[in-house]
C-alpha cells in the first residue's frame, strides 16, 4: 500500500519518473504468486501430513506459512490492477488486499524473530529454557503476534478510504490514493508503530540472538559436545536466516521512513522525492519476494523437513529410518542440549507424542 503513489503527487512541482513501477509490479508479483503458492503449499503439506515430530519451532513455521499464503492469494488481484491500472473489485477487496500485505510482511518478520529467539534459547540456555520452550507457549506467542500484526495492519486498510476515482480516465485506483493530510493525521503514526514494533525490534533481536549463538558455538566444550557437523548446520541456518531477513525487509522499511518524511513534507526537495519514488518499487518487490524465500528458512532450519522429503523419495532399511528419526531430534538445536544420546532420544520421543 505504501509502495505506490499513483495520482497523489508528493510535490506538484517535481517531475515523476516512476512509470516503470506498473510493469515491474506485474511481472514480479506474477512470479511471486506462482513460486510462493507452490513452495508454501508444499511446506504446509509437509507440516500437516508428513512430519511426525511437532515442536515449538514447527509451530512458528506453520504460522509463517499461513501468513504467506494469505498474502499470496491476493496477488492475482494486484497483478490485474497493475496491468490495467484500474481496480474493479470494490473498496472492500482493496482494503483486505492492502491489510494482508502488511500482515504478511510484519508477520513474517515477527515469526522469523520467534524462530531466531527459540534457537537462541535452545543453544545458549538449553537447560533453563526447557520449561519455556513448549508447544503451548509457542501457540500463545503466535496468537500474540497475530493480534499485534492485525492491530497495525487492519486500521490502515479499513479506517481509510482505499479507492479513488480518476474522472479523466474513469479509472479506479487502489493502494495509492492517500493524501498528505492522511499521512500527517494517521499514516505517519502507523509507520512509527509498525517500524518500531514490526521492524527495528525484530531486527535487533535477530542480530543479537545470532551473535550470542555464534559466541556460544565458539566455546570448545560446545564444539566437542555438539560436533563439527552440527556446528556447521547451525552456522548455515543462521547465515540463511539473517540473509533472507536483511535482504527482504531492510530496503523497504528503511525507505518507508524516508517515504513518510517526504509525504508529510518533513523532507522536501525534488531530488529526495525522486530517489524515494525510484527506490520504492524496487524495494517493494524485494519485500514481497519473502513469500518465496521463507520456505528456504523452513528447509535449512528444520532437519525434520529434510528427512521427511528423504523418506518420501526413497525406501530405506530399518537402520536408515532409525538414523532419520534420530536426526529429527536436531530440529531445535537439541544436539547442543544434552551430551548423552540416550537421554536426548528419550526427551524428543516424549515431545513427538504431544
Automatic annotation (TrEMBL):
GO MF term set: lysophosphatidic acid receptor activity
Keywords, comma-separated and alphabetical: Adaptive immunity, Disulfide bond, G-protein coupled receptor, Glycoprotein, Immunity, Membrane, Receptor, Transducer, Transmembrane, Transmembrane helix
Record-linked InterPro entries: GPCR_Rhodpsn, GPCR_Rhodpsn_7TM
Superkingdom as given in the UniProt entry: Eukaryota
CC annotations in GO: plasma membrane
PROSITE patterns, alphabetized: G_PROTEIN_RECEP_F1_1, G_PROTEIN_RECEP_F1_2
Domain G-protein coupled receptors family 1 profile: 39-298
Key word Disulfide bond present: yes
Subcellular localization, as worded in the UniProt entry: Membrane
Transmembrane segments: 27-48, 60-83, 103-121, 141-160, 190-214, 234-259, 279-301
Pfam families, alphabetized: 7tm_1
Membrane topology (UniProt): Multi-pass membrane protein
GO terms of biological process kind: adaptive immune response; adenylate cyclase-modulating G protein-coupled receptor signaling pathway; angiogenesis; phospholipase C-activating G protein-coupled receptor signaling pathway; positive regulation of Rho protein signal transduction
Similarity comment: family membership: Belongs to the G-protein coupled receptor 1 family.
Name of this chain's protein: Lysophosphatidic acid receptor 6a
Amino acid at each position: 500500500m505504501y509502495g505506490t503513489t499513483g495520482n497523489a503527487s508528493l510535490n506538484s512541482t517535481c517531475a515523476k519518473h516512476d512509470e516503470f513501477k506498473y510493469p515491474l509490479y506485474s511481472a514480479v508479483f506474477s512470479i511471486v504468486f506462482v513460486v510462493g503458492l507452490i513452495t508454501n503449499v508444499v511446506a504446509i503439506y509437509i507440516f500437516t501430513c508428513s512430519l511426525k515430530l511437532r515442536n515449538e519451532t514447527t509451530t512458528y513455521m506453520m504460522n509463517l506459512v499461513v501468513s504467506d499464503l494469505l498474502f499470496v492469494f491476493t496477488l492475482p488481484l494486484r497483478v490485474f490492477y497493475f496491468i490495467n491500472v484500474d481496480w474493479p473489485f470494490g473498496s472492500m477487496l482493496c482494503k483486505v488486499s492492502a491489510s494482508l500485505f502488511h500482515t504478511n510482511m510484519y508477520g513474517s518478520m515477527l515469526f522469523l524473530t520467534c524462530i531466531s529467539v527459540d534457537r537462541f534459547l535452545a543453544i545458549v540456555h538449553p537447560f533453563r529454557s526447557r520449561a519455556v520452550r513448549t508447544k503451548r507457549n509457542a501457540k500463545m506467542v503466535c496468537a500474540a503476534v497475530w493480534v499485534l500484526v492485525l492491530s497495525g495492519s487492519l486500521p490502515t486498510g479499513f479506517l481509510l478510504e482505499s479507492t479513488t476515482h480518476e474522472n479523466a480516465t474513469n479509472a479506479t485506483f487502489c493502494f495509492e490514493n492517500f493524501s498528505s493530510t492522511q499521512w500527517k493525521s494517521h499514516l505517519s503514526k502507523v509507520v512509527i508503530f509498525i517500524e518500531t514494533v514490526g521492524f527495528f525490534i525484530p531486527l535487533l533481536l535477530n542480530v543479537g540472538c545470532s551473535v550470542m549463538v555464534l559466541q556460544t558455538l565458539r566455546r570448545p566444550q560446545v564444539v566437542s559436545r555438539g560436533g563439527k557437523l552440527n556446528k556447521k548446520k547451525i552456522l548455515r541456518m543462521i547465515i540463511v536466516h539473517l540473509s533472507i531477513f536483511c535482504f527482504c525487509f531492510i530496503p523497504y522499511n528503511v525507505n518507508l521512513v524516508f517515504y513518510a518524511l517526504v509525504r508529510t513534507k518533513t523532507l522536501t526537495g525534488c531530488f529526495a522525492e525522486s530517489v524515494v519514488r525510484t527506490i520504492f518499487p524496487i524495494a517493494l518487490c524485494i519485500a514481497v519476494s519473502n513469500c518465496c524465500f521463507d520456505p528456504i528458512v523452513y528447509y535449512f532450519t528444520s532437519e525434520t523437513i529434510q528427512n521427511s522429503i528423504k523418506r518420501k523419495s526413497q525406501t530405506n532399511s530399518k537402520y536408515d529410518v532409525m538414523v532419520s528419526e534420530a536426526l529429527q531430534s536436531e530440529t531445535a538445536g537439541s544436539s547442543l542440549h544434552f551430551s548423552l544420546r540416550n537421554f536426548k532420544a528419550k526427551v524428543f520421543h516424549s515431545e513427538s507424542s504431544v
